[in-house]
Amino acid sequence: MANDANAQTTTVIGWHLDPDTAFAQARADGKPVFLYWGAVWCPPCNRLKAAVLSQPAFGALASGFVALHIDGDAAGAQGAAERLHLRSYPTLVLYRPDGAEITRLPCELAAPRFLHLLQLALTAPSTAAQSLCDALSGQRVLAADEWRLLAGYSWDTDEDQLLAGRDLGATLAALRDACDEPESALRLAWHALHAAALSKAGLAPRDGLDMLLRTLADPQAVLAQADLVSNYAVELVHALTAPQSEQRMVLSAAWSGALERLASSAQLDRADQLAALRVRVRMARLGSPVAGLDALLRERAAAALAAAQESALRHYVVNTAAGALADAGLLEDAEAVLRAALPGSHAPFYFMHNLAAVAKQGGDVPAMLDWYQQAWEQAIGPATRLQWGATLLLALIDAGPDEAARIGRLAGALLPEVEAMADASLRRNGTQLARMLDKLASFNGSSEQVEKFKQKLKQILRERVKK
Question: Do 31 and 23 meet the contact criterion of CB atoms below 8 Å apart?
Answer without folding.
Answer: no
